[in-house]
Amino acid sequence: MRRALAGLFCIASCVTAPDAARSTTAEPVRRGLADVIKVEPRGSSGSYLFLVTVRSPDTGCDRYADWWEVITPAGELVYRRVLGHSHAKEQPFARSGGPVDVSEEQEVIVRAHMHRGGYGGAALRGSALTGFEPTELAPDFAQGLASEAPLPQGCAF
User: Fold this and answer.
1) N or C: which end of the chain has fewer CB within 10 A?
2) Nearest in space to 127 (alpha carbons), one of 60, 72, 89, 54
3) What pLDDT, in 10s, does the model give residues 67-117?
4) Per-residue pLDDT tens over the stretch 119-142
């Protein structure tokens, strides 16, 4: 009886609150690629600090998430946070970057890049005002950004 009541209580109270939806966790899109699973902007218009959580199948310098980036829906690079080493023993991991020059209501996409794999993992789309939600990107969306600076200068470990 006690278990039944506990289960009933959970059904009634385990529903996600509206504010919790702003920190949505994205599901993996393609195996073997880096997924952005959470974006937390902090600060104010024109100088946000983005705390981005990435889940990636890092194995070492041979295969690791080498950056995350903020881009416009048109595919223009706004900001890139280069990651200098593998996070094989720290999954998922969160790294901050900024200042990110966007307004509170400006919609952007945050995605990650995998050394030896490229783009294609889960990405989030949203704004500092509305929060971020999972988004699907075309396989060829803004692929040219992979050669734009700043780029990693190697992998420490």
Assistant:
1) N
2) 72
3) 999 999 999 999 999 999 999 999 999 999 999 999 999 999 999 999 999
4) 999 999 999 999 999 999 999 999
* Four-CA torsion 77, 94, 156, 31, nearest 10 degrees: -80
CB 108 within 8 A of CB 70: yes
What's the average model confidence in pLDDT over 3-11? Answer: 33
What one-character-per-residue DSSP string does 48-91 give?
EEEEEEEE----BTTBEEEEEEEE-TTS-EEEEEE--S--TTS-
Q: Output the CA angle 84-121-54, nearest 5 degrees.
A: 45
Mean per-residue pLDDT, 6-22: 32
> Under a CB-based contact definition with an 8 Å cutoff, are residues 98 and 78 in contact?
no
Class of the CATH-defined domain 19-147: mainly beta
For residue 34, CA distances in Å to 69, 76, 87, 100 come to: 12, 20, 11, 21
Domain segments of the chain as ranges:
19-147
Alpha-carbon dihedral 11, 14, 19, 21, rounded to 10 degrees? -80
> Do the strands 48-55 and 77-82 form a parallel or antiparallel pair, or are they unpaired?
unpaired
Amino acid identity of residue 59, one-letter, is T
